[in-house]
Amino acid sequence: MRPTQYGSVEFFADGFSNYLADVDSTNPAITENIIKGFYQALDSWFEYHDEQARTYEDIRKRVRQALTV
Question: How much is the pTM?
Answer without folding.
Answer: 0.74
